[in-house]
Each structure stands twice: as C-alpha cells, then as structure tokens.
Amino acid sequence: MPEYDAVIFDLDGTLTDSQPGIFACTEYALRKMGLPVPEEKVLRRFLGPPLAESYMRYCGMTEEQAAYATDLYRERYIPIGWKENRVYPRIRALLSALKARGVYLAVATGKPQHTSVDILRYFGLLPYLDAVAGPDNRDLHADKAELIRRVLPAGKKAVMVGDIAGDVKGAQDCGIDSIAALYGYGDDGELLAQGPTWAAETPQALCDILCPGMDAPKGFFITLEGGDGCGKSTQAAALEKRLTDYGYAVRRTREPGGCPIAEQIRGIVLSREDGGMTAETEALLFAAARAQHLKDVILPAVAAGQIVLCDRFVDSSLVYQGVARGLGVEWVEAINRPAFRGGMPDATIYLRMSHVEAMRRRMAVSDPDRIEQAGERFHASTEEAYEALARRYPDRIIPIDAAQAPDKVTDDAFTALYARMVERGVL
Ligand code: TYD
User: Fold this and answer.
1) Are 270 and 349 members of one domain?
2) CA 352 to chain CA centroid, nearest Å
3) Can you tell me the distance from the alpha carbon of 381 to that of 223, in angstroms, rounded to the nearest whole number?
C-alpha cells in the first residue's frame, strides 16, 4: 500500500455527515413555497450537487424558482442548518494521527469556502488542515478538479478522498490517486464505476488505508456536578449532543441509578415517603448504587473507548452526605472505595451557582424530591462544600459559571472539556 504524504478530503459525506441540516433546510424552502416534500430517496440526491440544480431536477422548478428556493434554504441554513452536522467517528483521530506523521492535509469541497471554514472551525477540525478550498462568490460553479488544484501541493504523493463520482473524476483529472468513501451519500455503483484507486466502506476502513496501526479509541470519564437547580440535566443533554456531533461515542448515564440494580436503589433513596431514613442509610445506599453502576456501566464503557458522561457521581456524596448531612468526608470516602480505587472521573464539570439563585430556579419549575426539600442551611452548605472540593481537586474539577445563558454554559463547559480531552489524546 503506498504511503501518501498529502491527503485531500471532500467535506460533506466524507469528513462530516451533514444530512440532518441539508434535509431540514431543503424541506423548509419547499414548505415555504407551498410545494410537496419529496420522499427521502429523492432528498438524498440533494446531498452533493449544487442546490439550485437539484431543485430544478427533482422538484420541477424553473431557474427563477430554484434561485428563490436557494434563498429560502439559506434563511434556515445560515442561523441553524450548518450546525446540524456530525463528524464521522474516528475522523478526528485520523486527522490527528496523519498530522503527527507530517502528512499535508487539505479539504476541497463544493460547499462555499466561508461556510466550509466555519463548519470545520466549529467542529474542531480546522487546526488539522493546511488548506481549504471551496467555491467563493466569484466562481460558484468551479469544478472539483479546479478546487483540488487549488490545494494540491507540488512534489508530494497525494490522494483525494470523496463520496461521489465527481470527487474521483476530479482526482483523475489532476493525475492523483483517489479513495471512494462508500459510507457517504454517493451511489456506490456510480462511485465504483468511476474507478477509484481504493474504496472504504466505513470511516475505520479509511483509517486502515491511510494510517495503518492507528491507536484504538481512548475512553474518558466525565461527571457533572452542582447543587440542586443548577441546570445539570439541560447541560448533560447539550454536552451529550456536542460530544456526539464531534464524532465521539458517548454513553450518558446518571446517579443514583444508571443500571437496573442502582435504579431500584434510586427509588428508595429519593422517595418522598422515607422521611425517617438515617443519614448513614442514605449514604450507604448511594455508595451501593455507585459500586454497581461503576462495575456494570462506567468501567466497561471507558475500557471500550467510549466517553462516559455521568450526571452526578462521588462528589455528590462527599458534598451532600459528607458535609451537608455531617457524616464527614473521610467516612464517605471510605464507603466509596470502588470509586476512589480506579474509578475516579477524568474530568468533572462543576456547574457553579449560588444556592439562593438555584433555589429560585428550582421552585419555579418542579416538585422537589426528598433531598431537594431540605432547608436553606443544607443547600448553603452544599454550595460551600462544592467550592471546597473544587479547590482540593483543581486538576480534575472544572468550575463553570452556571448562572449564564444556557448556551454559553454549554460552550464554556464543552471548550474546557475538549481541551482536556485533546491534551490526553482522546480524539
Ligand atoms: P436527581 O433527581 O438526580 O436530582 P438532580 O437533577 O439535582 O441531580 O436527584 C439526585 C438527588 O440526590 C440530588 O438532590 C442530590 C442527591 N444525591 C446525594 O445526596 N448523594 C449522592 O451521592 C448522589 C449521587 C445524589
């Protein structure tokens, strides 16, 4: 197998799966024009070729109507649609490994240049690339060979990776090898008939062709912590989406619970009827649920290279049972041995919010459970205890200002997490 020292990638259907955004925006334009939305098989043909062309070909529009439909498409694509996109699994690790081997990396795409750069930046791929070529306002119809030539370095053995026949043809016109990404949107028959040098059925197969012997994916254990009402559930969902869109395999879970035995314990420990439960019983139940959850879910998922995102973990016990209930941090550490011996998180997002603000938000939305019903002193001491933990474990615990707008909280938390993951080679 030849070693390439330059790799040029197509974007949509090769590095990222942009189907959700493209479908939604295509439909948006059709609905606004009062036209029927074609079936999925037809919508799939919109992925790749210029938009106006597809509107004319598959929806029977005139050139004028197609131009209007394109404007409507952009009305949704520019604020929202471009983010409805997902990096294929393993692609981030592939780019990183190739870059580490000194390979020149570029993108040549039919998507407008500035949009492509925005997408590559948002999804954290831009830092791996030496060049990006897409049509700009002057040459919206530039063909693939022309785009490839713009980024093709002299004197290197190059290969083009793409998911439609036009990508392979473009590579042939430039006299370079090509790899057909069969996992993308192109018709496999057409793509193979064009005669690519190689074909990759999956992103992993692409890694095997371009960078044999790459490391297996590394797991990472993230926990989310904070007082009741700090917005943890919203942030857990948002972070799960950001990580998944970045191409990571995410296993989202929660405590108390996360596996059948621990979920049963959750029922007991959070029930509003157990007003007579001793603090020790409560702490032991949380620890028991955690021991099972670690063994059944967290450790196996991390070992399999997944990103575990867990809503609350042992810090909650240190704070709520150790400090707020007054059992002592050392005793709580002792009953949580499975966590402290080989089960600690790689990173903890601490959603920092004053207990007064958290209480205000909590009262506005929900029916409090047994622990949430505890008095103000209890919640004030959880806040202090979280602050003390953050000072004690500065390398693990990342405090994030949770009183900001929810999107800003997600951005801050994700940026900090991703930086840490890159540092540890979790790609
Ligand atoms: P939950 O419904 O998960 O609340 P939240 O959305 O705030 O996480 O209930 C968890 C409650 O249990 C919460 O009040 C904190 C408490 N808890 C402990 O006291 N100790 C623990 O170890 C854990 C995991 C949770």
Assistant:
1) yes
2) 23
3) 21
Q: Does residue 1 have a pLDDT over 70? A: no
Strands (E), 281-387: 307-311, 347-352
Which of 272, 274, 371, 373 has most ligand 1 atoms within 8 Å of its beta carbon, as the pocket-test mutant? 371
Q: Are 157 and 255 in a shared domain?
A: no
- Closest protein CA for atom 22 of ligand 1: 317
Is residue 215 in some structural domain? no
Q: How far is the CA of 256 from the centre of ligand 1 (A)?
A: 7
Q: What is the residue with the minimal CA distance to atom 14 of ligand 1?
A: 371
> How many structural domains does the chain have?
3
**pLDDT: which is higher, 273 or 190:** 190
**What is the rounded end-to-end Cα distance, in angstroms, of the chain?**
25
Q: Answer yes or no: do 73 and 137 share one domain.
A: no
Continuous H helices in 123-163:
144-151
pTM greater than the 0.85 cutoff: yes
What would the mean pLDDT of 32-59 be, rounded to a whole number? 89
To the nearest 10 degrees (0 to 180), the angle between helices 406-423 and 232-245 is 50
User: Is 1 a domain residue?
Assistant: no
